[in-house]
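Handout for the seminar on molecular recognition.
Each group receives one record of this type.
Step one: identify the two inputs.
Step two: read the structure output and locate the region that could contact 4'-phosphopantetheine.
Step three: write two sentences on what you found, then compare them with the reference statements printed after the record.
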Amino acid sequence: MKKRIAVYPGSFDPVTNGHVDIIERACKNFDSVIVGVLINRHKKPVFSPDERAEMIRKSLKHLPNVTVDCFSGLLVDFMRRNNITVAIRGLRAVSDLEYEFQLAHTNRLLYPEMETVFLMPNVNYVYLSSTTVREVASHGAELTGCVPPCVADALREKFKNEPA
Ligand code: PNS
């Protein structure tokens, strides 16, 4: 039987427990999940692609059917190269919908064979985003229980010399 493989693309700057929750759900429903970390040349991320990928790997050690890879350019090209036709995206609230619609329909236009599958995280994470985590961490505070321990350590280290 054909293996069901999905990519979960994102910026992951940094990965949060909300992302981990989505990946755990994806792993239950697909044989293999590839987390695709975007190398975005136009944005200046806090963490390099390698740092982001390494933190994701550390946070997913309990999941045997996940791999982490970095990609640049279009998601559909990364998917074609890897022979993947399913992309997973998390939907937290209605506010996510407009952007996700744009993304999914643009991707469908570029790669009609692909499907975007939306998964909902645990309700505890609906307010959580990497942007919020970065903002709070940049002021020297921590969002306990919102990021994996290795991410909390990395954020502390990254912002230790910033004025609160
Ligand atoms: O975590 P994010 O930032 O919401 O993830 C967005 C991501 C990486 C899925 C999206 O920006 C993406 O796929 N970027 C690669 C370029 C691309 O394929 N864009 C889609 C057509 S506009």
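Reference statements: The chain has six helices and five strands. Helices lie at 17-29, 49-59, 75-81, 94-110, 130-138, 149-158.
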